[in-house]
Structures are given as structure tokens and as C-alpha cells.
Amino acid sequence: MAADDDTRLPWDSLLPLLQLCDSALPTGAFAHTFGMETYLHRDTVHDEATFQQWLEQFLDHQLVHADGLAVRLAAEACTGPDPVDARQLEDLDALMHAQALPAQVRQAGVTMGRRLIDIGRQSLPGPRLERYGELVDRGRCHAHQSIAFALIGVDHAAPSPVLVRAYLFSTITSLTQNAVRGIPIGQNAGQRVLAAMRARVATAELRIRGLGIEDLGAVPPGLEIAQMQHETQRARMFMS
Predict the structure, then answer these.
(1) Distance, CA of 169 to CA of 7 (rounded, Å)
(2) Could you give the 3-state DSSP secondary structure of residue 124?
(3) Neighbouring residues of 218: CB distance < 8 A, sequence distance ≥ 6
(4) Which of 166, 93, 119 is nearest to 85 (CA)?
(5) What is the DSSP letter of 217?
(6) Domain assignment of residue 41, yes or no
(7) Residues of the domain holding 203
(8) For residue 8, with 0-12 CB atoms within 10 Å meaning exposed, 13-18 middle and 19 or more buried, which class applies?
């Protein structure tokens, strides 16, 4: 079997996944750059080429070992006929909350996670998401968008590799839209960056398959320090 055979999407999953990955989904992603604005302030990121370089590093060294891995772990934990075990959700949620050392990034995970749970309950309901929402309501979980995304996807029959790639590319798309506004670069430049990132996203998902829960949060300190510095930056357009 070819490595990419399990990335084929069941047709019943297509429309729910398109809705879930829509850049207009009101989770608040438009307000976050996850430290990119610090690099704008330093003038390290200032055009299409330098933005793409930053985006590649963010994907390879933070998304892979945090949100991307969490999507895979959450999806694999609940692929059976019954909703996922509460203890597994609580443990993964706690790890995702703890590994986000910058306060703004940690809060973004909670805020966007709660928004995605709310949106999912109304528009993309399913038993696994509902189980997670109940744990958040009861204060047993913080909420994180990567976990909510995975549970919605599994509720709608999307396979784990597809969900990981969709999450990574959706996050990159949101960041690119923010770069179009914030650097600024043109819309055509943003599309060129996204086209260049497609193969890298596929490679990142294949790497995530080989990681374990012990790899969760193995993020280089440089990215985290930039995210921490954003909290006290003199002028900001974005929340993180």
C-alpha cells in the first residue's frame, strides 16, 4: 500500500471537512499570528520570501510537535464505535494546555477551542465532540482547538491522516491571510506561499505518524520566546 493511500477522503466527510476548514469559520483565528508579529516587529519577516521561511519553521518545529500531533492522538483515541474515553480526553487536554508555555498561545488554545466546540455543537454535532464539550462544561478539560477539530472530524468519518493534513493547512491558511494584511503582502503572494506549502504539509503529516505522546510540546525555545515577547510588544495588530 502506498504511504498516501489512507489520505483519501470518504465522500460523506467532504462537506463537513470543508466547513470545518473554512477560513470564515468564526473561531477567532484571524486575530492570532502565534508569534509572527514579533518577527514583523524585528523586521525578520518583511516580505513574501521571509514570511514563507518563517511559516516553514513554524510548521516543522511547532505545529508538528503540538497541534498536529494532538489531532492525530485525539483522532486515534476515538476511532471505535463508542465516544472516546473521558480519561484519555482529559489527559490529552491537560498536556496540550501545559505544553503551551507562552500565556497568549495557551489562552488562544482555550478560546479557540471553546469557540470550535460551540460551533461544532450547533453546526457539526456528533457524540465525540459532545463528550468533550461536556468535560469542558464541567471544568474537567480546558478546551483546545486541535482536539475539538479531531473529534468533529472523526464524528463525520474523516480518517486521521486527512484530519492532520487539513488542520495543518487550515492553520497555515489563517496565518497567510494574516500575513497578507499584516506585513502586508499581496493576495497573489499569499496564494503562492500556500501552493509552496502543500508538499511540506504532506511531509509534516508523515512525520507526525512516527511521533509519540512523549514528543508533544517539543518546541524550540526561540519560537516560544518570540511568542512571549509579543505580550509586551509596544504596538500590536494581533492578539498573539
Answers:
(1) 14
(2) coil
(3) 65
(4) 93
(5) T
(6) yes
(7) 32-230
(8) exposed
Integer Rg of the chain from CA: 17
Q: Is the pLDDT of residue 2 over 50?
A: no
Domain annotation covers residue 162: yes
Q: How far is CA 65 from CA 55, 68, 189, 213, 216, in A?
A: 15, 7, 27, 9, 5
Q: Would you say residue 17 lies in a domain? A: no
Tell me, yes or no, whether 24 lies in a domain.
no
Q: Residue 47 sits in a domain of what CATH number? A: 1.10.4190.10
Among 166, 127, 126, 176, CA closest to 19: 166
Judge contact between 152 and 129, C-beta under 8 A: yes
Judge whether 70 and 144 are in contact, CB under 8 Å.
Answer: yes
pTM summary value: 0.93
Cα atoms in the 13 Å half-sphere on the side-chain side of 121 = 13
pLDDT band at 235 (very low <50, low <70, confident <90, very high): low
Domain total for the chain?
1
Average pLDDT over residues 111-138: 97
- Alpha-carbon distance of 118 to 19, in angstroms, equals 14
Q: Which residues contact 191 (CB under 8 A, 6 or more apart)?
A: none
